[in-house]
Design a protein that fits this description.
The protein is an alpha/beta fold. The chain has one domain (about 5-220): 3-Layer(aba) Sandwich (Rossmann fold), CATH 3.40.50.10260. Helix content is about 45%, strand content about 20%. It has helices spanning about 5-20, 25-35, 55-70, 85-100, 110-120, 140-150, 190-195, 195-200, 210-220; strands spanning about 5, 45-50, 75-80, 105, 125-130, 155-160, 180-185, 190, 200-205. The chain has a 7-stranded parallel beta sheet with strand order 4-3-2-5-6-7-9, with helices on both faces. It has a two-stranded parallel ribbon with strand order 1-8. Helix 3 (about 55-70) links the parallel strand 2 and strand 3. The protein is globular, with a radius of gyration of 16 Å. The two termini are about 15 Å apart. Bound molecules: ligand NAX and potassium ion (K). One of its GO terms (molecular function) is NAD(P)HX epimerase activity. This is NAD(P)H-hydrate epimerase. Its cofactor is K(+). It comes from Tissierella carlieri. Belongs to the NnrE/AIBP family.
């Protein structure tokens, strides 16, 4: 199975968007729908989503929207500086605000306590905090959140990469979500292959990036 680096993935995303003309929000929506396809909606009714403020978090917001449309009980939490949200994160956050979905912005003890209550009673926790954009050790409030996720969740699904895992080396950057299932997009990231203990079952899902893009980038980056 072809395994790629985060840098190669970023280059493929960029080429698909800039050269082929697939809007990034389309890739994000495809990613969200692929995650929904991998959730047993007949059995999962109460779902806790924890989103970062990058595009991994944006995936999570789009997933939350589709879960609501499927009449699920969604507890949505966001961790990170809301002023630093990416373009696509903000598009999906704006939609949820227009749908009047309440979310909790985790900034301290009070919200961590609410998160814990949501985790202990839910059917599924979805980790959408960091993906291929993780660049340094996880610290502070992020570390507290991931620790709660690991301690109190019954069943965890990670979006693209378990948050805290280095997508290239499989190294734990301070702390990482220990997932039951990881839905990774387009091609498997090298770091996932070494870390079964953290990824759980790995499922690779296409998000609409044409084969040509993969070829061009791999030839260029050889
Ligand atoms: N258009 C695209 O590029 C697509 C991206 N997708 C999703 O977007 C993800 C990549 O998104 P981003 O590049 O925005 O990055 P992430 O969403 O992975 O990370 C968010 C931000 O967290 C910050 N960060 C990194 N390490 C941190 C740390 N230790 N503590 C605190 N903050 C930290 C960085 O500034 C980074 O931009 C992929 O993993 C995938 O889930 C998919 O939606 C497919 C389309
Ligand atoms: K993640």
């Amino acid at each position: 199975m072809l395994a790629i680096s985060c840098e190669e993935m970023k280059a493929m995303d960029f080429y698909a968007i800039e050269k082929i003309g697939i809007p990034s929000i389309v890739l994000m929506e495809n990613a969200a729908l692929r995650v929904i396809d991998n959730i047993d909606l007949d059995r999962m009714n109460s779902i806790t989503l924890i989103c970062g403020v990058g595009n991994n978090g944006g995936d999570g917001l789009a997933i939350a929207r589709h879960l609501i449309i499927n009449r699920k009980n969604v507890d949505l939490f966001i961790v990170g500086n809301l002023d630093k949200g990416t373009k696509d994160f903000n598009i999906n956050l704006n939609i949820l605000k227009n749908m009047e979905l309440k979310f909790i912005h985790i900034t301290g003890e009070k919200e961590l306590e609410i998160l814990k209550k949501s985790l202990v009673k839910n059917d599924l926790t979805i980790d959408s905090i960091f993906g291929i954009g993780l660049t340094r050790d996880v610290e502070d409030i992020y570390k507290d959140v991931i620790s709660l996720i690991n301690h109190y969740s019954n069943n965890i699904l990670s979006v693209d990469i378990p948050s805290g895992l280095d997508g290239d080396t499989g190294e734990i950057l301070g702390i990482s979500v220990k997932s039951n299932k990881t839905i990774t997009f387009h091609l498997i990231k090298k770091g996932l292959l070494e870390s079964k203990e953290y990824t759980g079952e790995i499922i690779v899902e296409p998000i609409g990036i044409p084969e040509k893009v993969t070829k061009v980038i791999l030839e260029r980056m050889e």
